[in-house]
Design brief:
The chain contains 13 helices and 16 strands. The chain is of the alpha/beta class and 345 residues long. Strands 3, 5, 6, 7, 8, 15 and 16 form a 7-stranded mixed sheet that branches. Strands 11-10-9-12-13-14 form a 6-stranded parallel sheet, sandwiched between helices.
Length: 345
Amino acid sequence: MKALVYRGPGDKALEDRPKPQIQAPGDAVVRITKTTICGTDLHILKGDVPTCAPGRILGHEGVGVVDSVGAGVTAFRAGDRVLISCISSCGKCDYCRRGMYSHCTTGGWILGNEIDGTQAEFVRIPHADTSLYPIPEGADEDALVMLSDILPTGFECGVLNGKVSPGSTVAIVGSGPIGLAALLTAQFYSPAEIILIDLDDNRLEVARRFGATHTINSADGKAAEKVKALTGGRGVDAAIEAVGVPATFQLCQDLVAPGGVIANIGVHGAKVELHLERLWSQNISITTRLVDTVTTPMLLKTVQAKKIDATRLITHRFRLDQILEAYETFGHAADTHALKVLIEA
Ligand SMILES: NC(=O)c1ccc[n+]([C@@H]2O[C@H](COP(=O)([O-])OP(=O)(O)OC[C@H]3O[C@@H](n4cnc5c(N)ncnc54)[C@H](O)[C@@H]3O)[C@@H](O)[C@H]2O)c1
Ligand SMILES: [Zn+2]
Ligand SMILES: [Zn+2]
């Protein structure tokens, strides 16, 4: 089968690989119909993710059709259409029983990282009963690809951790796919203001179309001042960090109002400064989270009911044999205006 393989920092190729086989009774093999590329795949290609060894098939998002199942799988059988979660969960360990699937002792984020992923014709999914979701009849499968990772990530790590609530004020720093997913799902709660901050005017324009009440290009270093002006001098109740660099975490510390939350989503590769000398008295909270995907069934219903239109995040389409071109397009988002690229296998 064809598969996109990470061959070491800066090196990837479309290779011919053997079709994956059932290895454990809980496994399923899924034939991929649609997959996509995540910002995290670009992190891997830069060599930022040491758990991902050269030779690994990348990808942790997608939908497909069950090809075969192990003897222990009871919820799915060959022919079922399924949504693949980026997080594998056994459903039984202490972390899974607490709904913290991201820290499952025999799962978590392993797909396209510690085991072969979804940017291929077939993928092996461990703990299939609790890591796959049935696709409802008539569902828009393009939209569901956005449910493997980005919608639960924006919602759980940003909106839920940020305690977004009716009438509250929210700033989302980073208007990439994850920041936009937080923007779409924050609107479930009718906050009064949602301010999107980025360096890229095109992405800010998209944010306006997706429901941002204000957008700020932070290139001039005046974003904190502008947010204060929009919020009666207070700052925001929820400052959601969706970039993953020291400057944006710093900005969130400047934006948060007394009693507010800094909800970090970004994957950080460098240490950041924490200004407790200023924040100790401000009654704030700081949260971090690796997406658990525990809200996937709920988000699936909202997509099905057309409460959010996740297909708006898809900007480009490719076939699996064009995946190198898809990486080029996704990797140069400032020029190509790419958000999510959909790859059909
Ligand atoms: N916590 C989790 O479980 C989880 C899951 C998935 C992704 N992530 C992380 O979420 C982050 C966002 O993901 P994405 O796919 O949207 O990334 P992305 O790179 O597509 O988007 C980031 C955005 O930040 C903007 N930006 C960069 N530097 C900036 C700065 N100094 N000030 C303001 N804006 C700036 C960019 O223009 C871009 O629009 C990444 O760090 C990703 O790895 C975390
Ligand atoms: Zn991802
Ligand atoms: Zn578990």
